[in-house]
Design brief:
321 residues, mainly alpha, two-stranded antiparallel ribbon, two-stranded parallel ribbon, 17 helices, 61% helix, globular
Length: 321
């Protein structure tokens, strides 16, 4: 998010100097060489800004450089990744995951609210009309809409609890691999509803209907979880299931580094940005600690995503596109 703020601030400068990064980004978008996509995590970061003027100026830059293109919501993305991996293991045909991870940013902002609306006619036409309506909003108008009550967004990691638990369980895992598997097990447990949703959606994709209650086998969810875990142990995941791989690895590394303290409460949002960007973007610009850790773990190579943290490196990368 720091780079969006930098670009916003450069937008207020004179054209003669101080706008090099912004001018380069604008030129790349205008020439159709790249776009700077966003995600729901970007939205959460934006609505931390309580000042309406700075928030709106940030959104204008985002609209100009992203062209409204966003990753789908995190939960939807996890479900798609689970289905994609499952069908690969079963040697079943499935559409490339890249075809199911993009959306309009305005819809990511409004999606949960739209799902709660009660349409008087059971017809997709009405729903599509509502989606079209919100897609045509400008991003600043969509975010600043009076019916969106989320901002300002105050979420922070509980650093007191995190540091306490890190000290309490510091001897629980004897190797980095054990630490990773410990994190993975916890994240799989937390995502159990998404495992179930993935199985149901996969059934629907293949049959055109959801299974009746009597057709559902709760044991399948446990088997699904066990299969994922065992494939990670056997190092057979590769570039599949990027959320579980990236999330568990990075938080495992945070815990394994005994000298690292949780300080600013932003680790979760930072890692979520990485989970979205690395598998689906060509470049990821982030802060120094996270960027260094990502490259050390070779996620940049695994997902073919160039990662940079220094402003000079970012500018040089954009200059080569």
């Amino acid at each position: 998010m720091n780079y969006w703020i930098l670009l916003r601030d450069q937008g207020a400068l004179d054209y003669s100097k101080g706008r090099e990064l912004l001018d380069k980004a604008i030129d790349l978008v205008r020439s159709k060489k790249c776009i700077f996509i966003v995600s729901e995590m970007t939205y959460y970061e934006i609505i931390k800004q309580s000042d309406a003027v700075t928030r709106t100026n940030t959104l204008k830059i985002i609209e100009q450089l992203s062209e409204g293109i966003s990753l789908v919501g995190m939960e939807t993305r996890i479900v798609n990744e689970l289905i994609f991996w499952l069908n690969n293991k079963l040697n079943k045909p499935t559409q490339p995951i890249e075809q199911s991870i993009w959306a309009k940013f305005q819809l990511i902002i409004k999606y949960n609210e739209l799902l709660t609306l009660q349409f008087t006619v059971n017809n997709a036409t009405h729903q599509n009309a509502m989606f079209d309506y919100w897609s045509n909003f400008s991003i600043p108008d969509a975010v600043n809409n009076e019916f969106l009550l989320q901002h300002p967004f105050h979420y922070k990691d509980n650093i007191v609890e995190l540091n306490l638990n890190k000290e309490l369980y510091k001897d629980q895992n004897k190797t980095p691999v054990q630490m990773f598997l410990s994190e993975l097990a916890g994240h799989l447990d937390a995502c159990n509803p998404l495992l179930e949703k993935a199985l149901l959606q996969d059934f629907f994709n293949k049959t055109g209907r959801y299974p009746a209650e009597k057709e559902r086998n709760p044991e399948l969810i446990h088997e699904f979880r066990a299969a994922i875990f065992s494939n990670f142990i056997a190092n057979q995941i590769g570039a599949y299931l990027p959320f579980f791989n990236i999330y568990s690895t990075l938080f495992g590394k945070f815990r394994w580094n005994k000298n690292r303290k949780y300080k600013d409460g932003n680790d979760t949002l930072d890692v979520m940005h990485a989970c979205g960007a690395l598998p689906y973007c060509d470049y990821f610009f982030t802060e120094n600690e996270l960027g260094t850790l990502i490259n050390q773990e070779r996620f940049n190579q695994l997902y073919n995503c160039q990662v940079a943290s220094k402003l000079a490196d970012v500018f040089n990368i954009l200059s080569t596109i």
